[in-house]
């Protein structure tokens, strides 16, 4: 049901009436039936009857009762947090068994905080609001998820250092976790490369000036190399200074991956420019 406005002309004057109308289907056609006529709109507004009717109907709605309480009782929200992304991505996170993998890799380290929760927060922040660890430590306070309330900037820094140390082991475990009877060996690897740049003035071992695919030779950049299997799933990645040809970081990754990924008959192709 809904409220419809209907105009009527009488004695040369135009009037607007409000009606409660019900829509229904009959023999495959949509029809409308007037349930009640509330009266002239100008009179309903002037007398306050329209507002009274709406308040009376709001008593039967949980949502509108909250709205009315905010208007009349001074009820106010103290904070608002996102919870949808954490629920959706959290299900994928658990499906990949990442909580168990991270727990196994960190059990010998005496962390006083949950490395798994910090890793999940960092991954979720990169997905929803890409930024630095400093930005992530502020963003995580706007998200409702178990274990997020105690995370601080130092936890992000320590987790990043920990992940750098166990990176190859984590990648190898994730790769072997998805193996089945039909993909026991890694026969084909596609390696894609792209360049990234940043707004900095000082060159480092990794950030250098060079040929820019983005037509910004004035900016420092580096090369990102991502390896995927024949099904399109990423299995590893590598960084390299932009001054090197993209073939070199690909070859370096291929040497470093060792027996953790490839078989004797493996072949790889570079797909980046």
Can you tell me about this structure?
39% of the residues lie in helices and 25% in strands. The protein has 273 residues and is an alpha+beta fold. It has 3 domains: 2-73, no CATH class; 84-165, no CATH class; 180-270, no CATH class. A hairpin with a 2-residue loop joins strand 1 and strand 2. The longest helix is centred in the middle third of the chain and has 14 residues, at 115-128. It starts with a strand and ends with a strand. The mean pLDDT is 82.
What global shape is seen? elongated
Instruction: Record the strand order, biggest sheet.
Output: 6-5-4-7
Number of helices: 10
- The helix/strand order is EEEHHHHHHHHHEEEHE
Reported for the largest beta sheet, the result is: 4 strands, mixed
Key terms for this structure?
alpha+beta; four-stranded mixed beta sheet; 10 helices
Structure, briefly:
The model has no long low-confidence stretch (mean pLDDT 82). The protein has helices at 41-47, 49-58, 62-73, 84-95, 98-106, 115-128, 133-139, 153-165, 167-177, 247-257, and strands at 2-10, 13-26, 29-40, 188-198, 220-229, 234-241, 267-270. It is an alpha+beta fold and 273 residues long.
Ordered list of secondary-structure elements with their pairings:
Elements: E1 2-10, E2 13-26, E3 29-40, H1 41-47, H2 49-58, H3 62-73, H4 84-95, H5 98-106, H6 115-128, H7 133-139, H8 153-165, H9 167-177, E4 188-198, E5 220-229, E6 234-241, H10 247-257, E7 267-270
Parallel strand pairs: 4-7
Antiparallel strand pairs: 1-2, 2-3, 4-5, 5-6
